[in-house]
Amino acid sequence: MPTRVESTKKSDNNITRFEIFPNAGGDSCDVSQGVLELNYYENILSETVKLTAVVIDTGNAAPADDGTGGKIGLDDALKMGNGEKVLLSFEDGNKTPNKLSFTTDSKALYLNKRQKISEHTQKTMYSIELVSKEFLVNETSRVVKRYDGRISDSVNKILKDVIKTEKQLDIEVTENKFNFIGTNKKPYWTILWLCKKSIPQKQGSVGKSAGYFFFENYDGFKFKSVDGLFDRIPIKKYIFNNTTSSVVPVGYDGKILKFESSSGGDFQSNLMMGTYNSSNKGFNSKESSYRENPIDINTQESGVTLAGLDFNFVNSLFIQNPSRISYSFDSVGFLPDGKNLQEQLKRSSELDMDKSQIMNQAAMRYNQVFTLKLNITIPGDFDLRAGDLIFCDFPEQSSKPNQSTNKRLGGVYLISSLCHHIKPNETYTYLELIRDSYGRKPIVR
Known about the structure:
Helix content: 10-25%
Radius of gyration: 25 Å
Largest sheet: 15 strands, mixed
Shape: flat
Number of helices: 9
Distance between the termini: 17 Å
CATH superfamily of the domain at 4-133: Trypsin-like serine proteases
Structural class: alpha+beta
CATH architecture of the domain at 4-133: Beta Barrel
Number of strands: 27
Oligomer: single chain
Strand content: 25-35%
CATH topology of the domain at 4-133: Thrombin, subunit H
CATH class of the domain at 4-133: Mainly Beta
């Protein structure tokens, strides 16, 4: 693979379109030349992509309608209120640019916030926040029907039938089923509620792993398990070295310009949340039975997909006993499967959901995945998405004459959030990376 040179800049404007449409109809305004700064965000903890921009209005947004031949400002031209549709596109500074395009009705963004930063007689500066249509539709929609079967199927139906999204859906199939009635809750609230009840369809995961993420990135909506996010091949490799050269070493896709590690987290907080050892105590009122279901990371390890090699890296002295105990009452026969009364009666003694296989397992995986965090800055790369896996290498900390790669810090990371940052003379991508374990696990293709 030949070496290549990266650039964080581009000679012309990276923002090729930023067109705002008035709610009352009429002519739109393209303000791309007035954008001083643009930040585009994705996050696996967010149900919407988000874009913020600083726009300067010099009073030349549109022709005046008074016959003078003059021009008027953005606010007067569009009579801006709330929820305006915006079509936009922008690209990074690579030789072959990666473009993010929100230029169709299904991908359009909508004005959520607008604030004046400064105002003078000849110019006004605005801060604008844009979000996806579904994020706003969620506020006026409710889940009211009964849903049966796999949780993943219910999520699919809610997004298509209630939110009515036309965007691409990437929904990982769940192992478990769960019957429920929508209690007039918002769609996103319902899906996030289901995330914590979902078990991935992976051999050995039942009783050891649970928990899904629901989020939106440029490609569409994702409903993915923690293990499903890690059970993939990294799409790109990045390296940090101390040289000032912009040349990318052979075998890598880009250079890390800056990084900051916050690995390790707060051990006491992790213990309090039951990250390493927890127990669920449940009571079945129908059978008048009591059960206790402990699980620790040693038992869990064989049923999860890890980013690194070293999962059990804490002092065993403090994880011999459960540090978090949850309590639950088993729900029996509430909404049994069956097309008629006879079939439902036959299943009326079955558990609606086995909480002993889900509650603590989900809580543990959610906490584990955020145990190790890393913030990096790279030249703008708009090909990356929240939820992607990348491989990172860092130099070892040593006084050896020939340093090798850091075998503990390097390896596979999940992009938990990203920000694509554009200014007239610079384009960067900021990434928050997370993983559940240490060690530079080799990539198996």
